[in-house]
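dumping this here before i forget
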Amino acid sequence: MKKTVGIMLGLGLACASHAGITTYGDGTGYDSQTRDWMTETGVDIDSNGLGTDGYFFFGDFDGVGGNLTYGGVGSELSAIASTLMTDVYPSYISTATIGAHANTKIGNWPGYEAIDNPLVGDGTDGVCGNITVNNAVGEALDFSVSGLGVDEILRVGIVTVLNDDTRARFDTPTISMTDGTDTATVTDLPNLSSSEDTTGPGWVFFDIDTDGDYTLLLPQGTSGGTDNSTAVGFGGMTFDTIPEPATLGLVAVFGGAVLFIRRRFML
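structure:
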């Protein structure tokens, strides 16, 4: 009986295959426009709000610093001064560096979008800063995931916060494995600066289930017209993990099978 149960569990867990990178939902439109990311449950993966494993946001949430100079391309985020960044990194994010097409200043203007201020943590809003990405390819960030748990999903939230500026729009935000073997893209995003859609910051989410090196691409729009972005505002990211749903289901199914087999053999 033990041998039979072991074979069943082995086969079942082998079926929980990795998908690499996927978008949350159907991959179109903003997934959330909430200011209250610390208590967000609609797209939350662990029912505790976003960023429970970690987060980073540009600026220090005071909204009075203007354009703040930092190291620019290649800068390790964790090494940027606390007056320029608000950040807590999960252990499985081994590196995170500014991408090749980001500018050299952190915007920290009072007109930018107000969201939950994690430095206060009680729901009080603060002004989130940003960096801008000025390229049709839009390499914004390179980051490495190392030590993600077996059969664990990492949900990455990415926010744009230039809500009062025609450059606010994410055009086609994308996360790719840096070696090009896997990619996922969100499409059909409205310009948050338009009169039709100014209800809050714009969030998109990606699910990652494999350790590796990743690149976040935030390309500027190339289609032309008033809804086109000449630069993209990147406010920050949140990190949350849970076990893969497929694995949880298999554990439940095979747990029931084990009980059934035990009862049959005990009769």
